[in-house]
């Protein structure tokens, strides 16, 4: 029974690991085909998954995904969309009062401990989701920059061009091409979810309003 209560997290964790594993195998096959064509020794799986070629591809996807979450969480504090279950009710913009958030003296008997205290601990816990998403985004972006620089300099060396520093790479079109091609797709996906859930339904999903709910009803989930 306890496993069933956590199946959503378990299923997506399994899908993530399977996808990451398959990505590593497909990437290894591509790299080794290129090595064979150029008369270079093939790489082992361990060599590939610890290489900058693999890490940069993973990092650039992670940073864009966590930017999506960071931006969406932040935006839903202050902006609303009438009719979307992804939005708060119009007129409820902002961080809301302590009574609505059940913090401090308004905390419930079973509220998390840091929700019952004041000061920096309450502030940190009140913003812990946004802080965590932002931190993962920045760390992934840094990993993308560092490993992307290595890959870019390898390509530069192959063409007899000089290597670039990290500062030079982060203003290079290659870095921003890798970055922005993911950002635009993430913002499109989030915006589509917000807008399409106004008029479209999926019976049984918590991300959808109940099928018979009027289009202009906001912040109601099935």
Can you lay out the helices and strands and say which pair or pack?
Layout: H1 7-37, H2 45-49, H3 52-78, H4 98-101, H5 113-116, H6 119-126, H7 128-158, H8 166-169, H9 173-199
Helix pairs in contact: 3-7, 3-9
Which labels suit this protein?
mainly alpha; 222 residues; elongated
Specify the biggest β-sheet.
Answer: none
**Percent range for β-strand residues:** under 5%
What is the SS-derived class?
A: mainly alpha
Number of domains: 2
How is this structure best described in words?
The protein has helices at 7-37, 45-49, 52-78, 98-101, 113-116, 119-126, 128-158, 166-169, 173-199. The chain has 222 residues and is mainly alpha-helical. Helix 3 packs antiparallel against helix 7 (128-158) and helix 3 (52-78) packs across helix 9 (173-199). The mean pLDDT is 94.
Brief account:
By secondary structure, the chain is an all-alpha fold. The chain has helices at residues 7-37, 45-49, 52-78, 98-101, 113-116, 119-126, 128-158, 166-169, 173-199. Helix content is 64%, strand content 0%.
């Amino acid at each position: 029974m306890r496993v069933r209560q956590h199946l959503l997290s378990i299923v997506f964790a399994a899908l993530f690991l399977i996808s990451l594993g398959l990505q590593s195998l497909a990437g290894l096959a591509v790299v080794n085909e290129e090595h064979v064509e150029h008369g270079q020794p093939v790489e082992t799986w361990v060599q590939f998954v610890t290489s900058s070629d693999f890490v940069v591809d993973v990092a650039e996807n992670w940073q864009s995904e966590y930017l999506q979450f960071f931006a969406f969480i932040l935006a839903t504090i202050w902006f609303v969309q009438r009719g979307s279950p992804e939005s708060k009710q119009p007129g409820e913009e902002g961080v809301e009062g302590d009574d609505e958030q059940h913090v401090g003296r308004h905390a419930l008997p079973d509220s998390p401990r840091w929700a019952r205290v004041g000061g920096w601990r309450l502030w940190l816990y009140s913003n812990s989701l946004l802080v965590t998403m932002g931190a993962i985004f920045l760390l992934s972006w840094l990993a993308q920059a560092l490993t992307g620089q290595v890959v870019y300099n390898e390509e530069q060396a192959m063409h007899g061009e000089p290597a670039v520093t990290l500062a030079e790479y982060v203003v290079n079109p290659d870095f921003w091409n890798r970055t922005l091609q993911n950002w635009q797709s993430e913002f499109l996906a989030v915006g589509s979810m917000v807008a399409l859930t106004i008029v479209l339904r999926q019976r049984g999903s918590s991300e959808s309003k109940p099928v018979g709910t009027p289009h202009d009803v906001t912040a109601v989930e099935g």
